[in-house]
Amino acid sequence: MKWKRMANIAFLFCCQNAFGQVQQAVTLTPTGGSDVTLSGGIGLAAKGKNSFTSEHNMTSIFFGNAAYHYQISSPVAIGLSYKFLGSHSGHDLLRCHFVGPDFKFRYLMNDDQQALFLTITPGYLHYADRVKNKQRRQIAFNHGYFATDFDFGYEFALSRHLSLQMHADILTGRWGSNPNYQLIPSDTQYYIGEDGKLRSYHDPEYMFEPSLVFIAINMGIAYTF
Length: 225
What we know:
This protein is mainly β. The protein contains two helices and ten strands, in the order αβαβββββββββ.
């Protein structure tokens, strides 16, 4: 029994030593390497009025993220990023798609096993929602415009090819030259006002602010090849 116990202790010691050597060899994506990242999380519309977020204030929004990066140097990578934003409340829906070129900057720590990073992605956001107004009329809105995503995160290596990421997203865009865009349903009745301008009987319930901001907390995994 004594020899068996000593053999078990020696085996555990060897395994621990080997595991420690493997851990020391694990590093994040080196220069010239590539990685693919998939992540998801929950967010909110922090600013901007639109038909869905005005009707369902503080409703959770699902964020889905996919990105590819090529490591130009140890602290700098370029790539392509795609994000999906979705939510629903009752029969009302929100569906957004965002895509753009990705610029990633990172600071390596702990023998290159961990990193802090910032990702900046200017791109195209397609915003779409579908809600019912107070008269129970179905209103659908689709609009595309320029937006920018700022991503702040922490990453650490799990193995030679895998790493775990935790990051916060801020996705923001501007409506540009039409800060008070008004939704008008297709069955609205129109008339000519005293000033000679076209008016509608529909109350201006859904007004759009110049800016729109989504925030989210995400977790994901990156595969290095």
